[in-house]
Write a sequence for this structure.
C-alpha cells in the first residue's frame, strides 16, 4: 500500500481535469499531483505543471515509469479510456477514469477483472449523483411529486472548484 500522500499522475489533463480534479487535489492532504502526461499541452497546462513543480511527460510509458505515481486519473478522449485504463492497471497502478468509464460493457468487465486480479482499484469519476441538487431531484421524483417521468434533460452550469 502506498504511503500518504498518494501520488497522482494525470493521463490527459483537459478542461474538466483542470477545473475540477487539480483544484480538489491541491486542497487534499491525502493526495498530491506528481506528473502530467498530455501529448498536446497548452499554456494553461504548462502553467499548472510549473506551479506544482511537477514533470510533464508526453507518453503513457514515461508516466508509468517506476516511482512516478501510485495512481492515475485518466481524462483522455472517451474512446481511449479502455486501453489507457488497461495499461495503468497492467503497470500496477490504481486508476480513476472520467466518465464514461469505457465505451462497451465487455471492456468494463475486463478492466474490473484485471483490477481484481492485480489487487488495484479501478473507478469512474461520476460525482454528480452526490450533488445536493441531484439528491433532492431524485427525492422529488421518487416521492411522485412530478407524476410519471417520461423525459429528462439537464444542463450543468459550470463546475465547483472546491472539489
Amino acid at each position: 500500500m502506498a504511503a500518504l500522500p498518494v501520488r497522482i499522475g494525470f493521463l490527459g489533463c483537459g478542461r474538466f481535469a483542470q477545473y475540477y480534479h487539480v483544484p480538489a487535489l491541491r486542497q487534499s492532504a491525502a493526495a498530491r499531483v506528481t506528473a502530467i502526461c498530455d501529448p498536446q499541452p497548452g499554456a494553461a497546462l504548462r502553467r499548472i505543471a510549473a506551479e506544482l513543480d511537477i514533470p510533464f511527460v508526453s507518453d503513457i510509458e514515461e508516466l508509468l515509469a517506476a516511482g512516478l505515481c501510485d495512481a492515475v486519473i485518466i481524462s483522455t478522449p472517451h474512446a481511449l479510456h479502455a486501453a489507457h485504463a488497461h495499461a495503468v492497471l497492467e503497470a500496477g497502478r490504481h486508476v480513476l477514469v472520467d466518465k464514461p468509464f469505457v465505451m462497451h460493457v465487455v471492456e468494463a468487465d475486463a478492466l474490473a477483472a484485471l483490477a481484481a486480479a492485480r489487487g488495484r482499484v479501478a473507478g469512474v469519476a461520476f460525482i454528480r449523483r452526490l450533488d445536493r441538487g441531484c439528491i433532492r431531484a431524485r427525492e422529488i421524483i421518487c416521492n411522485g411529486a412530478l407524476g410519471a417521468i417520461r423525459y429528462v434533460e439537464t444542463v450543468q452550469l459550470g463546475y465547483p472548484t472546491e472539489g
User: Anything to note?
Assistant: The helical segments are 15-26, 43-52, 60-63, 81-90, 105-118, 132-142.
